[in-house]
Amino acid sequence: MGCSLRVAWDEKLTSYNFGPQHPMAPVRVELTMALSRELGVFDAPNVSFIPVEPADDELLKLVHDAGYIEAVKRAGTTLEPDDPYSLGTSDNPVFPRMHDAAALVSGASVAAARAVWNGESEHAVNISGGLHHAMPGHAWGFCVYNDAALAIAWLLEQGAKRVAYVDVDVHHGDGVQTMFYDDPRVLTISLHESPLTLFPGTGRADEIGGPHAEGYAVNVALPAGTNDPMWLRAFHAVVPPLLREFQPEVLVTQHGCDTHALDPLANLVLSLDGQRRTYQALHQLAKETAAGRWVVLGGGGYELVQVVPRAWSHLMAEVAGAPLDPELQTPEAWREFVRERTGDLPPLSMTDGRRPEYVPFEDGFDPDDPVDRAIQATRKAVFPCHGIDPNL
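That's the Acetoin utilization protein AcuC sequence above. Prediction below.
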């Protein structure tokens, strides 16, 4: 049975472009949308597209400082660096009409949130979104405006009392955490590579929220080398119990696929098949804990041909309630498009050939296992704040 899905999309979303040498190339989104179209992901009658408008200044000010917004506009015109705002760094180069491009991504995420909140659809997706690092007053980690935080802030403005945010990007969702660190209406959960080995160097288990929101920032910092069974063990040990207790009105999720073994910027070793298991679990949790209200965002992912298009096509198919058979061959028309567009060899099928299984954490804690230690540190730090026994 398909789920009603609204897809926030405009071809101009690929204008968020830091230049040809930058790892966050918009071709990854272009190839994703092309693959999803060829696979028929958008053809079901329950799937429709949302028109996208840029977020205006008043909307952006829900999470960003007015001075920073003006700095982004200025830098996109002068193309000059602006050091106080981290604009013009190697991570965040300035580019023409930068404000327009970033505001459009933010507007797309708010459009997705609006569709879900207003009951137009159960689920909505902005695959170009998930720019979770941007801070209130400066750019950070390839992110100019924080569309994920903006979508959440918009939901709060509409009267939402409980919004859960789950971030499965390999990097800590630091910007979103920062913006809601002392707000108990927002539960932020981030599973990511340890700050000891990866940008941004935050996201430790003891970062649990401000004095008015202790336990509402949740961080699972996983060691380099974490694979599918380890990741799934950690996910299921932390995320479902907290969402079931919190009972969000809306679930917002960020799906950076840079946890994959082929990603050039990080050190986890998940497969496409392990990532699919996470999408399935979040879909079920959206139904179980948030009455199906689910806002889905993209995020990181820097293996532009082999990983991102396949991962996010699986994601959108799952969100639509019509999961793709992982044994499917990639369409020949898409392969030819990849060769023409990038010069790279395209993947031939929609699987990495894995069948990941995991042992539930509840079956026993191994103190010699660094993943188990990470899980236990998080559970001990936050579960008691929610009345949950971390040892059960």
